[in-house]
Structures are given as structure tokens and as C-alpha cells.
Amino acid sequence: MGWGCDLTWIDKRKVVCMQGMKAGALFGTALAGILASSVPAWAQTAGSPTDEARVKGAGTSAGGAAPMAADIFAPLAYPQPENAYRAGSGLPGPAYWQNRADYSIAARIDPATHVLSGSETITYTNNSPDTLDVLWIQLDQNIYRPDSRAASAAHESHGSHPGMTSVHTDGVVIEHAAVDGAAVTPLVSDTRMQLRLARPLPPKGRVAVRISWHYTVPGTWGGRTAVSDTKNGPIYEIAQWYPRMEVYDDRRGWNTLPYLGQEFFLDYGDFDYSVEVPWNYTVAGSGALTNPNDVLTAAERARLAQAGRSETRVMIRTPADVTDPHSHAASSGTKTWHFHMANTRDVSFAASPAFVWDAAHIDLPDESPGPGRPKQPRLAMSVYPVEGIGAHGWDRSTTYVKHAIEYFSSMWFVYPWPNAINLGGYGAGMEYPGIVFDGWSDRDPELFWITTHELGHGWFPMIVGTDERRRAWMDEGFNTFIDAYASDHFNHGEFAPKQDSEFAPKTGVPADDIVPILTDANAPTLMTPADLVSERYRHSVTYFKSAYGLKLLREQILGPDRFDAAFRRYIAVWAFKHPGPSDFFRIMESEGGEDLSWFWRGWYFRNWSPNYAIAGTSYVDGDPSHGLVVHVENRGSLPLPVVLRREFSDGTHADTRIPTETWMRQKTATLTFPGGPKVTRVRLDPDHVIPDVDRADNDAEVGVH
Ligand SMILES: [Zn+2]
């Protein structure tokens, strides 16, 4: 990218380009020098934070007069104060704690009735400084009850629940609940269940919760979890399937927002789970299969071993196997598949007699499938019905899986789990740790983009455990951000640029495609709680605007070197923990080395936008050899760095980068360039890398006002 050259101050209204400055210095000493000479006194001392509610021009900048510079650049008061649990640096504080939930689950599917039944033991560890007198547990399947809160809110709910107003289940039936062996009567409220503890759970205490339950698996109208028919039998996509602990944390105690269709917030722990299915079913699940000798044939096990040495896919179950009853390890009754996954917030699985199954090696160090078991090669895998087969379809799925896991591992944080599986189901487009649910009918770029996106959720929120229910932009947007680069990286850009409903949907140029959102007075801000964001804005704000914010931060504000180091630090220190927005804002400032109050305020707390204009040009003394003067006006509310290009009469051009600090005390900057060749035009943001909301005034013929 053309970084151009930076500016230095002559006086408060005049800047000149320092020719020959290296691009690498743009974000280092050069900017530090500008800051030292230009930052107002209030920004250099720790003044009292500005109350966001009092900042003028709080709405979209399109709706009226732009806010004043003092409001744009005022120190930002973060929603979460720093304390012993969460440090001002954005790191977990010295007293940070997090509770832990380990699960042992045995489940069974009855295909005749579509009933899934199970029993589980949750070993819950209280690492908080508080004594707990109740436990709160999530009963997500109650979202399908006719009297659920989500059923009433469905018209403004997640788009994959269109049937929620007309088709229902009875939700989850709790057959029995006990704490440390003593039966308790659960108190169920919508998608939550409270268990009152006969003996309060003290700090560092541990309790065993035993629950038995069953529910009817919804049809495809279930959205994220469903059973659907294919030519060779049903596919069960099983998620949000067992009673799961709510998160108790330092910010608000129990996190008990009901499940209205947004996503999830979960603690970490180790999972052992088993699934009993008919003899001819194959189960693909989160983590690693721990009893292959019981459920796989010798041929299937040999093929898996071969896949562990192969960079290209090896068929574990072929299309011919799917219709061959002798291709299974049993010929009647049921089989029970055991899985283990360590240090994860959730597990899911898919089961079907219709699965074609292929796998290839993931180029990461071997991983143990469970405690005391030797390390094994890690596998990228795909399971799908024969309907998904095709050179443009699922024949390439495992290649996409392998690329996503290896690429994201090399860029951001090494994938911590044994396997990664892509399921070709009816098309939920949903992410779970170690397994994602996609559509067998997806082809070419759609299959690549959805596979990469859902697996990218392995990093956000499966590794960095944010609260999806409140802050969907912290997983959907952050994931979409890393996905855009994955599209550029795969197979020499075969599917680049990423251009789908989640990112730059109209032209593939995010600076242009985001403008309708920035100028929409009704658009929610990124900080709007996820339950309040209507379907109309879910992709454009939660995914696209959030992802593009990080792209602006990386490419236009910090530069890749500083951004990547800071973002990797954010991921590393918050891996398997629960960061909030304030933690993220703080660590990117501290590690990135900039006061970003103006950017967080404008892009995340408001829908503010940049809008620069050429206000006038002239030659000094009317003579190009004496110098060129360009007046640039800031009419916007998000003062992103902007490039000014001078186009010379000989067809060449030169770029000058105008930094953010230019606009701290002035609305119009006067740039004077040394004399030289005749300049025919000047252009602001010539490459469309910032979302200037009015480009009509961005370029001008020199000397024409
Ligand atoms: Zn997503």
C-alpha cells in the first residue's frame, strides 16, 4: 500500500511534506514528534473522563452539524472501570478470576421420535471471591417453546429462526436434578434454570450438579440445531443440547440474559461426552474420538491414519460405503461414540447414516486426543451427504478447512484442539468449537467464505471467550476481519476479495460499501446491545462495520506492524478468558501506542464518519516553480489519516499523508509544497481506503476554485 509521506508542522495552520521519509517511520518517531508539539494540554494530563452522554453531536454525523474537535478528541470514559480484575492496560488484572465448568455427558438419539435424551454431571468450581447461594443454568432448547420470550421477539430475532412463530417443541424436559447427590427442584424461567444450593458454595469450593433431560430435536426451522432429510437418511445437527452453566463473573455476577436468538456466553472446562446412535450412523463431534476401535472398521481406522500423513484429502467413508451395510463396525443395535475435548466452552456434534467422510493432515504439532493418550496428527475433516459431492462443492471442503486452521494459526494464535470438522448439513452456517455446521449445497466462493468464517470463530469467541449475547460485534466482526485476509491468502487470491453479505457486499471495496450505514440515521452503533440490533443491521453493522473498523485501525491508523503485535497480544492474554469492549479498547491503545479515544468514540460509540474536502488550491505567486498551496477542510467527525495526491502534468503523482492530529485545533489545514512540475489535479483519498461520506469535493483542478 502506498503510505506516501508524512507531514511535519511549520505552524498551526501549515504543514509540509517531509520527502524521503521511510514508510516504517510513519507510525513511529514521526508521529510521536507531531504529538509532542501539537497535543493540547488537556490531552497530556489525566483529566476527568468526559461523560459520553454530554458529548455534542451524539448521533450520526449525517444528521446535522459535525461535533466540535474538543468533543471528537476528548478522553473517553470506558464502560468498564479498571480494577484489580481488569487492568488499565487492558490486561487481565492481578486478581482476575473465572469460574470453571467441567462436563461429563451421556446422550442418546432415538431417530424414530427425534428425541435426544441425556444425563450429565457438571463439576462447577467457584474461583470467585463470592459465596454462591444459587447456580444458573442455560436451557437453550426452551427457545422453541410456544411461550418462549424468543417466540414473541422472533420478528426481530435471528434470521435463521423464521419458523419460530409457527412451529414449536416442548423445550427441554428436566427429568431430575441433584446437587452433590441431593435432589433439588429446579426453578425454570424461560431459557434459564436456577438451582438453589442447600449448602452455599464458598470461594474455591466445588460442586457436582447431576441433571437428566430430554427434548425433541426441531426440524430445519430450528436454525442452529436441527434434523433434516437427505437421500441416504437424516442428518442430526446437535447444538445447545445439554444444560449449560451460565457465566458468573466480576462484571455483573450471573449473566442470565435469556436466549432470544443471539449467541452465547460460556465458561471453559474439559468435556467427556458420548452419543449413542443406531449402528449405521457416523458421529462427527467436537474434540477427538476416544474409542475408534469400538465404532470404526479396521479400514476406516487405516484410512484415518493415512489421512494423518496426507496433505490432500483421504476418503474415510466413500459414497459406496454410505449405501453398503457391510461398511460399518456393527450390523445391528446401537453404537456409542465417545469424545473428549479439553479447555473448551462448548461441544457439538452431527450424526447421520448419510455421511461421506474425508480428512487430511493439519500442519500443526500433534495433539493428544485425551488424558493419558499419545499424541496424534491433527485432522481437517469434512462430513456431508452425497448431494454435496462435486468439484465445485464439498470435494474441496477439507482443503478449505486445512487452509483456515493453518492460516489463522500462523497469523494470530495456534489452534489448540485436535481436529476441525466442516459439516455439510442443510445450511445453518453456525460455529461450534472444533466443528462447524454449513450447507451441503454451498459451492465455490460461498463454500470457501462460509467455511473460513465459521472456522474463524474458533478464534472469536471459542479461544477469546467474549460475551456473544451482549457484544456480537466482538466475535462476528473480529472474525470477519481475519476472514477478509484469509480470502486474500488462499490459493493466490482465488476467492479474493471477500465480498459477501458479511463484508463489502456491493462492490468489494469496504470504504465505499460502508457509506450507506454511516449516513443512515437509524443505524445502531456497534456498542448497541446485540439483542437490540434488528436483522436489517445485523450483517452490515455487527459483522461488516466491526470488521472494517479493525481494518481501518490496522491499515490506516496503527499500521500492520503495530496492529498485528497488539492484536496478537490481545488474543494471547485473553485466550480462554472473558474480555469485554473496555479491555479490548485499552489493550489496543496501550500495546498499539496511540490515544485512540477519537476512533473508539466515532466508530464504536457513534456512527461518525470522515468527510474531507479540497477547499482551494493555488500556486505561490501564480508560478508552479514557486510552490503549490492546498487548503484541505475537515467537514467530518472521524478524523482518520487521509492521503492527498498531487497529479503532475507528466502523468506521475506524489502522495502526502495528513495525520489525525492535524484536526485537533483547526477545521482547515493549509499544505504548502515546494515548487516543481505543474500539478494538474489534487485528490483526497484517491485509493478509496477511508470511508469519506462525500467524495464530490475530494478532488479539484489546481488553480480552479
Ligand atoms: Zn459468524
UniProtKB/TrEMBL annotation:
Residues 547-677 form the Recombinase domain. GO terms for molecular function: DNA binding; DNA strand exchange activity; metallopeptidase activity; zinc ion binding. Residues 1-43 form the signal peptide. The keyword Acyltransferase does not apply. Keywords: Signal. Pfam families: Peptidase_M1. Residues 148-167 are annotated as: Disordered. The keyword Glycoprotein does not apply. This is Peptidase. It comes from Tanticharoenia sakaeratensis NBRC 103193.
